[in-house]
Amino acid sequence: PTEVNGLLAGVRDIDVEDWHKNSRMVSGLTAETQEVQWFWKILRQWAADGHQDRLQDLLQFATGSRRVPVGGFAQLVGFNGGKHLFTLAKASHLTSASLPTSHACICTLDLPPWTSFEAASQKLSSAVAAGRSHFDEGTG
Questions:
Q1: How many CA atoms are closer than 13 Å to the CA of 133, on its beta-carbon side?
Q2: Is 105 a catalytic residue?
């Protein structure tokens, strides 16, 4: 039953190194870009602290699914059903005060030009928390 569930629903535990290895950067971002380095440092910190829930929430925010497909991040499928590597994009349209934005259909996260690791961590955590909420929770 567990194996069948994994095949149908994906894997619950997230391996940040597999995620990193099967990701790409676009729009001028590189592995050396400060925001990219901060992003992976935050994810590794969450993993080291046992916060699989935060990793799952981030994965859902960015892809529409809380689970990793069988075969790992190399097999990631976007909301539109197509196979897509997780992608970090430079968010030229956002400011340093912005939260990251996501495009779940193509497994892409737009990173704002954050000014510090602390700001990056706070903004990424806020985006994940907001993504966990329903769009209409604030309406009465």
A1: 11
A2: yes
